[in-house]
Write a structure and sequence with these properties.
By secondary structure, the chain is an alpha/beta fold. Helix content is 41%, strand content 18%. The protein starts with a strand and ends with a helix.
Length: 392
């Protein structure tokens, strides 16, 4: 029984209905829809076959035979689960093998596997901060970073998206206060905009101000940088986070860092300490992905050419694709209702292009987030462009 000011609350679920009704009234209600894959790019959605332009499976790896085979091999060898957290008895032999393989590819001293990017982001930042710390966060950072920042309970300053002059001003001002540490947090490829941050400039700023730099490479890993290993490769970023659930076609995440930071996270990061380690099958698929990714330079080049073709064609038709320069191509519509209407029209025309609305993006910045993958053909792109051409 709940009491408010001594009065018995008659419907304890009222707040649930109120929140849902508010979302519906604003056209911001979300629901889960079953996606049934047909092949690498086609799916069935509510009985209709459509070409999927919304997945993060940028290299088409989720259905790659080598990943499926290695996942099965790992199950056969190690079983279906890891049985405990890494610190208890879940650190099966393949974890350190893959961490070493990944460190060699990333050019860092060490890496550490996490259960997901979300879990990494919500637990690494609180582990690194105390109440006297300062986080400087790009204003378009992903929600998982925002949640991690909230849990950090320290002072937070947002800098304007990719605006290094603003960041420099905030860093300079911060020197007047005795913060225990200053931590800059950014993505390298922004998940909803497909634009990139300037890692060299951020490393220089962080060095100049003795600030710690954290870069989330969720959408760059596998796609950009040397051997597809991300934009911060070899650039001296203190801590890089990446995910295995996007271009790597599987699930999970990693941190690339120094030996000391890895040891610190193993000792202080709750998301690693208090969660069962990833199952062998997931890591088996990641292992196969890491063997394939370095040699895919031609595929990556073509992927970016395709994305450029999509962007320039949509721009010619008058659509706003923001500052995208990667495989993520937003079509910024603005109004949530119109964005939903466009998403429905695309579906009727045979394409999945999901509408992204507030609170995932700022008010008035609703969009269709398109992502191009290596398994989309040029013809798929041209069909999609034609559909955009005929939207009224
Ligand atoms: C930038 C960024 N970081 C982290 C995550 C979370 O990663 P995961 O899906 O592995 O939880 C996402 C997911 O969309 C993301 O876009």
């Amino acid at each position: 029984m709940c009491l408010t000011d001594g009065q018995l609350v008659t419907d304890k679920n009222a707040f649930i209905h109120e929140a849902l009704n508010k979302r519906k009234a604003l056209n911001l209600f979300r629901r889960l829809r079953t996606i049934d894959p047909i092949d690498d790019v086609k799916i069935v959605l509510e009985g209709k076959a459509v070409i999927n332009f919304s997945s993060n499976d940028y290299l088409g790896f989720s259905k790659h035979p080598a990943l499926k085979k290695r996942a099965i091999d790992y199950i056969k060898k190690y079983g279906a689960g890891s049985t405990a957290s890494r610190l208890i008895c879940g650190s099966l032999p393949f974890f350190e093998e893959i961490e070493e393989k990944l460190a060699a590819l990333k050019g860092t001293e060490k890496t550490l596997i996490f259960n997901s990017g979300f879990q990494a982001n919500i637990s690494i930042l609180p582990a690194l901060c105390d109440e006297e710390s300062l986080i400087l966060s790009d204003s378009l950072n992903h929600n998982s970073l925002i949640q991690g920042i909230r849990l950090s309970k320290c002072t937070v300053l947002k800098y304007r998206h990719n605006d290094h002059d603003h960041l420099r001003t905030l860093l300079k001002e911060s020197l007047k206060k005795a913060y225990s540490r200053r931590i800059i947090v950014t993505e390298s490829v922004f998940s909803m905009d497909g634009d990139q941050s300037d890692i060299n400039a951020l490393v220089a700023l962080s060095k100049e101000h003795q600030a710690f730099l954290i870069v989330d490479e969720a959408h760059a890993t596998g796609v950009l940088g040397p051997k597809g290993m991300g934009l911060s490769c070899g650039k001296g970023v203190d801590l890089v986070i990446g995910t295995f659930g996007k271009a790597c076609g599987s699930f999970g995440a990693y941190v690339a860092c120094s030996k000391a930071i890895r040891e610190y996270l193993v000792n202080f990061c709750t998301g690693l300490i208090f969660s069962t380690a990833l199952p062998p099958s997931v890591i088996g698929a990641v292992d196969a992905a890491l063997d394939l990714i370095p040699s895919l330079e031609d595929d990556r080049r073509e992927l970016l050419q395709k994305a450029q073709h999509l962007r320039s064609s949509l721009q010619l038709l008058g659509w706003d694709t923001g500052k995208s320069s990667t495989q993520i191509v937003p079509v910024i519509v603005g109004d949530a209702d119109k964005t939903l209407r466009l998403a429905r029209y695309l579906e009727e025309s045979g394409f999945l292009g999901v509408a992204i609305r507030p609170p995932s993006v700022e008010d008035g910045r609703s969009r269709i987030r398109l992502s191009v993958t290596t398994v989309h053909t040029w013809d798929h792109l041209d069909q999609l462009i034609q559909a955009f051409k005929h939207f009224k």
